[in-house]
Amino acid sequence: MWIRSFLLLSLAGAAWAQTRDTASVFGAVDDAQGAAIAGATVRLTSVATGQVRTTTTDEAGRYIFNLLPVGSYQLAVEQPAFRRYERSGILLRANENAKVDVRLEVGDVRTVVSVDAGATQIETQVATVRETVDRARIVELPLNGRDAAQLALLVPGVLDGRGSGAAGQDSFSINGSRNNNVRFTLDGGQNMDNHNNYNIPFPFPDAVEEFSVQTSNMGPDQGNSSAGAINIVTKSGSNQVHGNLFWFVR
Fold it and tell me: How far is CA 10 from CA 3, 4, 189, 237, in A?
């Protein structure tokens, strides 16, 4: 019985890890003349957890890291006869695909070229119109009944669609669409009442890291919900011991 319970918990943890990761980093590596560099080692490190992902560039110098948790990352690229390239400050949001191209300089690999990604990242892989409600707004803006879903109304084109749905469910109309034609996901997994096609209530604000609201040009992964999509990402662990305490009085 104990072994069976352990296996179920392990499988549940694996399934959770597969569904909560929504972002990606991709790009190309070339030299000063613009020629692609194949076989370069590319490492992506999570600042919060220290987890390192490694890949190599293909014959066209391209690389990609899929299914990444949201958060801050550092990128490093190495190739013999070239200086090591390091880039920090790569911030990934929910459902974001960040393009990071790298140009290596000829020199000693022990010499490091360091870049701080302070510029705004532009989505170039997909045409989806999306806005992210980040952690700062979830914490600092007033909420009625600690319902973070209300912050979706900050996104242009999103209107309150109340009058439908069960108690505890939030209803939205996006760009004039029907309010039961919006897809809700929680850490990448479906978070909807399949009978009425409404959302299952959001987690309480202390558990939510951020959520994205897609209002136009959604990808085929959104299925039959043509109006829009709301993807909630919950908090994940890090290398620092932390917690919080709240007192909610009405």
Answer: 11, 10, 18, 17
